[in-house]
Write a structure and sequence with these properties.
Layout lengths: L5 E5 L4 H14 L2 E8 L6 H11 L3 E6 L1 H15 L10 H20 L3 E3 L8 H12 L4 E3 L10 H10 L13 E4 L4 E4 L29 E8 L2 E5 L2 E2 L2 H13 L5 E7 L5 E7 L1 H17 L2 H19 L6 H13 L5 E8 L2 E8 L7 H4 L11 H9 L1 H10 L3
Parallel strand pairs: 1-2, 1-4, 2-3, 4-5
Antiparallel strand pairs: 6-7, 7-12, 8-9, 8-13, 9-10, 11-12, 13-14
């Protein structure tokens, strides 16, 4: 077993990281420091800090990274419209790199020689944490207790926690794991592992079911400046408040639930249920605005970039050169993505009501079926003849002419 003097643990106060504090201290005989990074979990942070110290940590950092999370991680994803496998809006994937970054900062401050995370050896988060550690602090040791300890599952962890008087929130009455931040709440494991069974309604925190949403739709307007959301219903907001406001508005209208079977990076299929109200409406509104201001070739090229960007983020490659190069491309495309989009939210649905931009490329005079002076319909004949020439030549040759 490797020797470390001081280890900084990415601490959430959940079952895994609570057990970790005691386990690392006990097995490595080293000082353990907890680092909790606030990306919108709405935790009782004084209570969490108290639990960390009582569980074995010599110190507990609580770092408010919410604004940075939104501006440096969420907004790039919105500008790119990055999605994994067509549906997953990357809430956990986007949070892990910034949490790892803040853990490294705490480790540098404390002159620690190692960092640790509570991700399992079956999941994606171990990759996301460790690739960030390797990219930003290659000299630090990395501890991944789930790949070392003898616990076979969360039931073993619960028993260990009881033995060492460690307070935990996961019990047999709540047999699934959840992870929250500003962008989403994820639910997985336990009773959700069978993809044939629907989720239970009482599980959700941010959204009502479409059946219980208001009978009258709600009109929502979102303003953008160079691809970045800046206002809701005409009111300018700071980034954190904007996301929180949209979570409330979209959530009360039943918008933002996602139930998917996804392909983990490690090769396992996993069923995940997510609530992402703000993310859902922001991606929708941003796409509608882009339809107004991006030229055809740029829009089509961006549609090729978006899923690849989403896959890089999902796979933990936030600091990869390719991802940064894609950021440069995306930022160039966003220079004129300014304007507003009006949406009607109704029982889980999003219905666009209008789009406006000072940089619109839409010309009503050109698009009309009525009389106009710009487009000469006779020109289309020559265009079609040239565009279809390969097809015509092929057909003639097949006919032997």
């Amino acid at each position: 077993m490797r020797k470390f003097k001081k280890v900084v643990v990415a601490y959430s106060g959940g079952l895994d990281t609570s057990v970790m504090l005691q386990w690392v201290k006990e097995n490595y005989q080293c000082e353990v420091i907890a680092c909790c990074v606030d990306v919108g979990q709405t935790e009782d942070y004084p209570g969490l800090k108290k639990r960390a110290l009582a569980t074995g940590a010599s110190k507990c950092y609580v770092i408010d990274a919410r604004k940075e999370f939104v501006t440096d991680y969420l907004w790039p994803a919105v500008k790119c419209e990055a999605i994994y496998e067509g549906r997953y809006l990357l809430g956990t994937s986007l949070a892990r790199p910034i949490i790892a970054e803040k853990v490294i900062q705490a480790a540098r401050k404390e002159k620690a020689d190692a960092v640790s995370h509570g991700a399992t050896g079956k999941g994606n988060d171990q990759v996301r944490f460790e690739l960030t550690f390797k990219a930003l602090a290659p000299d630090l040791g990395i501890l991944a207790p789930w790949r070392e300890w003898d616990f076979k599952g969360r039931e073993d962890e619960i028993q260990y926690a009881k033995k060492h008087n460690i307070p935990v929130t996961v019990t047999k009455s709540k047999p699934y794991s959840s992870d929250a931040n500003l962008w989403h709440i994820s639910y997985e494991g336990g009773v959700l592992e069978d993809p044939a069974h629907p989720y239970k309604e009482d599980m959700f925190e941010l959204t009502v079911s479409p059946e219980k949403a208001p009978a009258t739709g709600e009109i929502l307007s979102i303003g953008f400046q160079q691809g970045i959301p800046v206002s809701v219903n005409g009111r300018k907001m700071d980034p954190v408040a904007l996301v929180q406001t949209l979570n409330k508005i979209a959530g009360r209208n039943g918008v933002g639930r996602i139930d998917i079977v996804e392909n983990r990076l490690v090769g396992i299929k996993s069923r995940g249920v997510y609530e992402a109200p703000a993310a859902t409406v922001l991606y929708f509104a941003h796409k509608e605005l882009e339809s107004l201001v991006l030229d055809r070739d740029t829009a089509h090229a961006k549609e090729l970039i978006s899923p690849q960007y989403g896959e890089l983020v999902y796979n933990g490659l936030w600091h990869a050169p390719l991802k940064r190069a894609m950021d440069s491309f995306v930022n160039e495309t966003q220079k004129q993505v300014t304007g507003s989009v009006k949406i009607k939210l109704y029982k889980g649905n999003m219905i666009v009501q209008g789009r406006t931009s000072p940089y619109t490329l839409y010309s009503e005079k050109l698009a009309t079926f009525e009389k106009e002076e710009i487009y000469n319909q006779k020109d289309a004949e020559g265009f079609i003849n040239l565009f279809g020439l390969p097809l015509k030549v092929r057909a003639l040759l097949r006919q032997g002419k």
